[in-house]
Each structure stands twice: as structure tokens, then as C-alpha cells.
Design brief:
Layout: E1 15-22, H1 26-37, E2 46-53, H2 60-68, E3 74-78, H3 84-98, E4 103-106, H4 118-125, E5 131-135, H5 148-164, E6 178-181, H6 182-187, H7 197-210, E7 215-219, H8 234-279, H9 284-307, H10 317-345, H11 350-373
Parallel strand pairs: 1-2, 1-4, 2-3, 5-7
Antiparallel strand pairs: 4-6, 5-6
The structure holds guanosine-5'-triphosphate (GTP) and magnesium ion.
Length: 381
Amino acid sequence: MIISGYSPGAQKLRNAVIVLPTYNEADNVANLIPRIFALQNLTEFCIKVLVVDDNSPDGTQAVVEKLKLEHEELHITTGPKRGLGEAYKRGFAYAFEYLDPELLFEMDADCQHDPSFIPLFIHLTEFGFSLIIGSRFAPGGDTPDFSAWRKFISISGNWMIRFFGGISRIQDCTSGYRCMKADIVRKCDLSGLSTRGYSFQSSLLFELLRNNARVIEVPIIFYDRKRGMSKLSFADQIEFLINIARIRFKQSKEFIKFAIVGLSGVIVNVGLYYALTRFARINEAYAQPVAVEASIITNFMFNQAWTFRRRNTANGTAGKFLQFHVIAGLAGVLNYGVFLFLLRYTGMFDLVANLCAIACGVIINYSLNSRWTWKTISQKI
Ligand SMILES: Nc1nc2c(ncn2[C@@H]2O[C@H](COP(=O)(O)OP(=O)(O)OP(=O)(O)O)[C@@H](O)[C@H]2O)c(=O)[nH]1
Ligand SMILES: [Mg+2]
């Protein structure tokens, strides 16, 4: 495919790094790498290929070293075998340090991913997409060589991750053919992601979405490998299932913490109000705002030190403190509005209406604080 608007020969300042993890892929890399570099003139990006090899005993490294003599943009990093996820983490870290990527590709080295999609994926990033997925399950995509059993495993696994993980809009969550804007990958916290193949891919997808990746799926046909052996094991499939539960929990963990902190705020609020009015004999009109402010302060401190402690955020503490107050005010108004509405227009029992209003307040409070006050900027790999 030729993408228009680019004149070959122009100096290329932007890099697209294709990260190819390899374990015993000597025959495949000899075939694939020249096919990737043949696309160099079809895009305004400089295509760089980074092989991440785990000391393959079949001589993959020797093949790559030989190819390097012909392709100056071919790079290799080697290390011990710790699974596909670890290989990708190592590859991304290497690319960030030495290759100055604007785009990062994930791609299997076994020729199951057709490299001719690379220029199209790159082109799509110019339209604001930050994650392009080569999708086997989007309309037009297919896995014609899969056995009935593998098709079942693959489709049901994908279905589970889509629906339990709350990302039903993505049709292929475990595809290993992706193009990502490097800026968004930099923001992801990769350190805690699984080490194995499928679970790494789905966990990375969640991290990318959490960092507001704009996604498009491009249908691909995924044929069986022609050379070499698959590394997909039964253990990979088990870990994939366990990982779905982990992702579900991770998705709700911060929210649960936020709700617990909110509850502690209620205790602070009521306790302080009681102490001020009963023991210090302070007028209710003064005691109430003091109690509210005290609970906002303790809530802020706990959220900062516990709920969102892993987040690497853009704002300083003073800014966050201010934003937290603004949101508390907004949530308070919403809470009151919902309460009045339910009471007046639905005839709901007042205590139930109050509970519903509190639930709405907590959700809006969490959503705004998560997206604004503790908005993530960049997390170290
Ligand atoms: N560096 C490294 N690469 C790996 C590791 N495991 C798999 N790979 C590579 O990751 C890519 C995908 O692995 P495959 O075993 O082909 O997995 P798959 O394509 O999902 O499964 P099949 O369709 O059965 O081939 C290939 O390029 C492998 O060589 C690993 O532990 N370390
Ligand atoms: Mg494969």
C-alpha cells in the first residue's frame, strides 16, 4: 500500500520502532526483517527494527548480526528468557533509551503478522489514533488456520476479557500486532504487568486505555506460522484466566479505596461535630463547616497517601488540594440535587433517596478526582 503525501528521499526525523521479540526464530527473522525494511520508502517515518532476543539457542542472534551489515536501522538487545511480557518491557526500555521512538510497534517475529500493514498503521496515527490494533476478530479479520479448539480458546478468552474487564468495544484484546504512540507507552506503568504473552497483551491494553489511548482496529488475517515452534503453552492460558480476575480487581481497587476513605471522612465529620458541639460547646452553625473542612482535609490526605499513591501526577500538592475542594463542592451540589429530585419526583423514601444521592456523589467525586486531580502524566517503566 502506498500512502500519499510523502516524498521518498526526504530526511526523516520521526522514528517508528518495530519491536520484534524472538525466541528460536532464526529462519523467520531472516525472512521477515528484509520485508520490513523494504517498506522504508513508503512512509515519512524512519523505520527501525529492534530484535529482543532471549539468548535463543538456534542462532537467531547470529542471523540478526549478519542482517545488520545490510540494514543500519536494525538493532538487537539480548537477555535471559523471562517470558514475552518481560521481553517487551526490555525492548520498550531499550527503544526509549537509544532509538528515540515516536511510534512503537509490537509484532511477532514468526511471520504471522503481515508487515505490509506497517505504513497503514503509521498513517492512522496522523488522524489522532494513538493505538492501532491488528485485529483478528474485527469484521474482515480472521484466523483461518486455527483448530476448532484454539478458535474456541481464543474467542472465549477475548470475550471474557472484554466483558469482565468492561472494554467490550475492543474486539481483539490479545493481538500481538499493535502500533502505539510512544508518549502513551511512556505514561504506562509497565512494571506490574504480567510476564507471559496473552496476559501481558491484555494488561498492556488496559494500561493504554487507562491513559486515554484513542483506539482503532484494523482487520488482519492471522495465518499459522510456517516455520519454527509456537511458544504458547497451557500455563499461558491459565495465567491469562487468572489475569482477567486481576485486571477486574485492579480496575475497581482504587475506587474501593476511595470509598473507604470517604467513609472515614464521614466518621471524622460526625465525630468532630459531636466533640465541638457537645464538649467544646461551640455553636452548630460554626461547628458544622469546621467538621466538613476537617473531613475534606483528612480525605485528601488519605487519598494522596493511599488511594492514588502509585500515580505519577502532573499537579503539585497545593494544586491537588484546591482541585479536591472544588470537586467536593460540585459533588455536594450534585448530591443535594439528586436527593431533592428523587424526593420530589419519585416519591422515594427519604433515607433511600439520601443513599442514592450519596452513591451518585461518590461516583462523580471519584471520576473527577481520578481524571483531573490525580491525572497521571508519566510513569517509569
Ligand atoms: N524474547 C522472547 N520472545 C518470545 C518469548 N515467547 C515468545 N516469544 C516470541 O513472541 C512471538 C509470538 O510467540 P508465539 O509462540 O508465536 O505465540 P503466538 O503467535 O501467539 O502463537 P502461535 O500462533 O501458536 O504461534 C514470536 O516472535 C516468539 O518468538 C519469550 O519468552 N521471549
Ligand atoms: Mg506465533
